[in-house]
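Changelog excerpt

This revision adds worked examples to the README so contributors can see how folded entries look when concatenated. The first example is reproduced verbatim below.
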Amino acid sequence: MKRRLAILLAMALGATTLFGCSTASDSSGSSDAEKAAADTQTDGGAKTESGAKTESGTKTESGTDAASEAGTDGDGTAAQGESESAEGKEEVVLWHYITDLEKESLENTINEYNASQDKVYVKAEYVPREELLKQYTIGAVSGELPDIGIIDCTDHSSFASMGIFADLTEKFQSWEENQFLEGPIDSCTYQDKLYGIPFNSNCLALYYDKDQLAEADIEVPTTWDELEKAAEALTKDGRYGLAMSAIKTEEATFQFIPFLLSAGGDPEHLNTPEAQSALEFVAGLIEKGYMSKEIINWGQTDIEKQFAAGQASMMINGPWSNNLNDNDAPDKNWGVAMIPKDKEFASVLGGENLAVSKDANIDACWDFITWFESKEVSKKLCGEIKKFSPRSDVSGEETFPDDEVMAVFGEQLKVAQARGPHPKWTELSTAIQLGIQQALTGEKSVPDALEEAQKTVDEINATIK
């Protein structure tokens, strides 16, 4: 297997999404292979903003190597395992964009695997997320790819459609421990074949201020009708009953999809009664004054700030908000519940997956993956990084035995669905975002906004082979 494409880029482009990605969230994953492709040269070397192509390694704007062969991993630290010997073992290079304490847990787990057997040596190399996407796009042409890559779940289909990932369907089907939740597995699937294995997962749920609900004599809502009544009762004195993100980014799509799914709709069919019902419900909360018009400008971090400051009694958000709440409002008495339902409970999936490059030593990579994704290892690692195991035999209660909030997210995760999976998800999501903004600002009626969005989705799908 070829080693990395020269040396890894270390430009100041960290993993910053709040949708299930490993840094702040996602997870949720906001940019994908196609966005990376638009910014990337595919002639065997990446170019800096000044246009200078690098030959032996990727350079920063000043022209110096971002990481040297001697062994930094792009963030100024020695690459994992540089001091360890891989002699006599099959070396497997793994790219990841995991940072901070999560990175330490990941690399400690990889070191544990390396020490547990004498066949395979996994070398972890850090690449900032946006640069990882660019390198994958380059690799689709050059063939210079890692053996294994950690990739956001929303990006998986885009790269699978490029033909750079190995088909793991038969390996997975013959694995006795292949017990995974449907949503995470769907995010690894393209054209009915499995091109990866889920690594970690998260989702959205309803946060609520226990004291404010008690003061208004309101029970935690479980249905849309109850949510609207609760939002009405809680809206007063400059405080709104509910907050959610509708900013024109992936965050809006991420937050709207649970309502769309709960109504029985799906992101590729928007000119339907189900989609209209979902968007009309959200728009109605704004029209009636129970939710701020400013949600079209608020991301998920902004929503958390509103909730922490007591300016919203409830919010839709993910588990990355837990520490933020505790830091921003340490005295707030808050809880988490399932997102109220229309026809059924629903949420949306965030998280990361593992993918194997098609030219890698598949058996060596699979040996590591089946160990790394085994029940006990997955439960331990996901608990350390405060994410959920995507395994169906690892419950939230097991991973977080003393954490009532994470236990609720564990239940919500069971009904979370992947976005797509779709090879042009970013384009499709952009169409949804525009429709949401048009409807919530009153620029278009809900039916007209969704009809326009559907035309764009149809045009996108028509380009897919």
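The second example, added in the same revision:
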Amino acid sequence: MSAALVRPRDGRMIAGVCAALANRFGTSPTTMRVIFVISCLLPGPQFLVYLALWALLPSEERVHTY
């Protein structure tokens, strides 16, 4: 089973969105950051999606596992 989509406490650069996506999809945070930066060169709402994920994804310390 894959990891939950939460922003980790460790490995953050700005908000932890790329680190969360990397954990979820099984890749390195650096790879996800490079993909994000390259995607920003293309037209589209990438930066707005990043901001939305920052606002919507819970931080790891706020997630309770039972």
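Reviewer comment on example two: The mean pLDDT is 86. The first helix runs from residue 17 to 25.
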